[in-house]
Design a protein that fits this description.
By secondary structure, the chain is mainly alpha-helical. The chain folds into 2 domains: about 70 residues, no CATH class; about 40 residues. The protein has 6 helices and no strands. It is globular. The C terminus is likely disordered.
Length: about 110
């Protein structure tokens, strides 16, 4: 999503001003990151803070995924998922060649990450 926002801004002659991540949250979830964090902390019974631990960030990311499944249009979700998988494939093919052993490890990690 952030890549799309950068491209849109560039095509309009705009620079990288503004918070691209925040705009991506608005487009994807219909709410700001701060609003979603507040909702996440409330659901978890945690106090609202100005920072977040790495473990909480991982949990928040998964919570956002589930939130999106519940609140998003299915067709848009499918389209965005396809775009993300295409991007992962482009990133994977742009990496340097790896040995067979490294490739096997990468495939195992890839399967775990799905």
């Amino acid at each position: 999503m952030e890549e799309e926002i950068f491209k849109e801004r560039h095509s309009r002659g705009l620079g990288p001003k503004g918070n691209v991540t925040e705009e991506a949250y608005q487009r994807i979830y219909g709410a700001s990151q701060a609003e979603l964090l507040t909702q996440f902390w409330e659901e978890k019974g945690l106090p609202r803070r100005r920072d977040i631990t790495f473990d909480e960030l991982k949990e928040f990311t998964y919570w956002c995924f589930k939130y999106r499944l519940k609140h998003s249009d299915r067709a848009r979700l499918a389209s965005d998922t396809k775009k993300a998988l295409d991007m992962l494939q482009r990133l994977k093919t742009s990496q340097h060649p790896v040995s067979e052993g490294e490739a096997a490890v990468e495939e195992e990690l890839y399967v775990v990450q799905l």
